[in-house]
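Record filed here:
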Amino acid sequence: MVLLHVKRGDESQFLLQAPGSTELEELTVQVARVYNGRLKVQRLCSEMEELAEHGIFLPPNMQGLTDDQIEELKLKDEWGEKCVPSGGAIFKKDDIGRRNGQAPNEKMKQVLKKTIEEAKAIISKKQVEAGICVTMEMVKDALDQLRGAVMIVYPMGLPPYDPIRMEFENKEDLSGTQAGLSVIKESEAQLWWAAKELRRTKKLSDYVGKNEKTKIITKIQQVSFRFNMSVFFVISLQTDKNVQ
């Protein structure tokens, strides 16, 4: 098995093993899925830390408003009445105004915190130092653990607009966010090694040889589409002629 040390830029991400005979089309998709899956776990952990501290997401039309504004506009958090944490809630105001302040009690908070730490450890970059490969099965295991913890603390579920629920249902909207810029579309992923693109039409062994004990540092990136200026000038000239 060839050992791939996957990086994004100069930053280590994870280790992954693959036979030299693997088609690079398959391998590129596999690397992209693990890469994006780790990002998903990280986003969930971040939001679940806020869930543990400040409760569920407020309806979009109530976020960022003061109590007086909410009262004046006669807005109501109907999901907040349904989605109560197990054992009751403890009020802890969210100064940012994203969450409703009805936080889980200390026991339920620790259920979330403990699971978050365990999930982070599964996909941690420290796995590289430990020589442990990260697989899609491990990513799915981390997601399942996080989902299970949320179900324990919120047996009635979360509002449909809560980013945690949206992540679990694969309905997250990352457009216009920094997190969205980190995601690499599987169809646009590229792998590079030794300053060469590992073309999807070939096999891994076409680049690294037949030695199954090879270790390589490969970088993942998104295809960059370069604007062809010559085409632009041709189109411009044709347009000018048509106008004349």
The longest helix spans residues 24-54. The beta strands are 2-8, 11-18, 89-91, 102-104, 189-193, 196-197, 215-222. The CA atoms of residues 65 and 97 lie 7 Å apart.
